[in-house]
Every structure is written in C-alpha cells, then in structure tokens.
Amino acid sequence: MSVIPFSQALRERTWSGHGESEGAGFMHDLMTGKGTREDYIALVVQHYFVYEALEAAARTFEADAEAQPFLSDQLTRMPALEADLVFLLGDDWRAQITPLPSTEHYVARIREIEAEGWSGGFVAHHYTRYLGDLSGGQAIGRLMKRHFGFETNGILFYLFDQIADPKAFKETYREQLDAATWDAVERERVIDEVLVAYRFNTEMFEDLTAAKAAA
C-alpha cells in the first residue's frame, strides 16, 4: 500500500474548510461584482492586521529549523498592503482602520503560536495564507481589477512580481511539507491548525458581512 504524501493528506483533509471559506457570502458578492469598492477596502484592512501578525511571527521563526524552509522574502505582503492602503484610503490610512472581532481572534492565535514557539502551527497558518494567495488570490486580483478599474495600485497585495512561476513555487512548498521531520502526532496537529485558520478566515468574512449590513 502506497503512503500518501503529507502535502496531499493535508490538502484533502482540509478541503472542506477551504470550501467553506471560499464560499462565504461576502467574497461571493465581491467576486461576482455585487460588492462595492468600500467592501474591497474593508477586506484589505483586515488582511493588513492578519499579515502584520503573520510576518512578525515569520521573523521570530527565522532561526527555527522546521519553519525556515518555508520562509521566503518573495512572499512578503506587508509593503504591498501598506501601499494599497495609501492608494485606497490616503496617507492617514492608519488612523482610519480597526480590526474586526474575528480578525482580533485570528491575530491573537497567530501571536499565541509565536509565543509558544510552535513552528508547526506557524507553518499551518503560513501555508493557509500564502498558498491561497498564490492560488485563488490571483483570480481575486484580476476580478478586482475588472470590477473597480485598478491597474496595479490597489491590488499590489495579489501581485507576486518576484515569483516568476507560482505553480512551481507551490510545488516546491509542498515538497518541503513532505520533507518536514514531523511525526504522525505533529502532522495531525498541523492539519488541525490549518482547519483552525480556515475557520478564522470564514469568521472574518462573516464579520465583514455583518459590518456591511450595520453600516
């Protein structure tokens, strides 16, 4: 009997969570042209807080042997997010933004993992965000360009100029997952944490929908 590679098991075991996240009503409206420019800005704002925490954690894990293979400056999103927010909200954007409750919980979980020094948990969140950005995120960027007339300003977050071949990059990333030295118990913990990350993402979309309805 052949052994299923960990990257394949991870993808298959978490696919339902991914589907729930992608299928959230807020993103459906945004992708189909029913959402507004303000809706898109609200999403960018929440991404800012998540990636601020994630990329701070990445610096903490730079010297960690298990996390280090997954770290790449080519993935860094914070400069792009900051430039997008300047374009979308103006130079005083920092004074205009606040995290939603679900985003605060998401950020708190990433910081908790960082404080614990749990590299497997960090990789779970890293995998969930960045491989998503290199996959469905590319389609989101193109649709936002079409719906709102963006060129590059406003959608820099979705543009990975330093990654010439996203497909090859993702394949290498999955090979690194397969090569990780985690035992069976740790691999289960990583899979569980990816599901946690998807749940946070879904809750963030739900909060965005509620905030829109209350506006």
Short description:
The chain has 215 residues and is mainly alpha-helical. Helix content is 72%, strand content 0%. It has helices at 6-22, 25-31, 37-60, 78-89, 93-96, 101-116, 119-134, 136-148, 166-179, 184-214.
Secondary structure: number of strands: 0
CATH superfamily, called what? Answer: Heme oxygenase-like
Q: Would you list the SSEs in sequence order as H and E? A: HHHHHHHHHH
Structural class determined from secondary elements: mainly alpha
Overall geometric form: globular
* Percentage of residues in DSSP E strands: under 5%
Please identify, by name, the CATH architecture.
Up-down Bundle
Under CATH, the topology is which? Answer: Heme Oxygenase, Chain A
Uncertain runs are: none
Number of helices: 10
How far is it from the N-terminal to the C-terminal residue, by CA? 56 Å
Helix content: over 70%
What top-tier CATH class fits best?
A: Mainly Alpha
Rg result = 17 Å
Total count of domains? 1
Largest sheet: none
Mean pLDDT over the residues: 93
Outline the secondary-structure elements.
Blueprint: H1 6-22, H2 25-31, H3 37-60, H4 78-89, H5 93-96, H6 101-116, H7 119-134, H8 136-148, H9 166-179, H10 184-214
Would you mind describing this structure in some detail?
The chain has 215 residues and is mainly alpha-helical. It has helices at residues 6-22, 25-31, 37-60, 78-89, 93-96, 101-116, 119-134, 136-148, 166-179, 184-214. It has a single domain (6-214), classed as Heme oxygenase-like (Heme Oxygenase, Chain A, Up-down Bundle). The protein contains ten helices and no strands. Helix 1 packs parallel to helix 10 (184-214), helix 3 packs antiparallel against helix 4 (78-89) and helix 6 (101-116) runs antiparallel to helix 10 (184-214). It is globular and about 45 Å long. The termini are far apart. The model has no long low-confidence stretch (mean pLDDT 93).
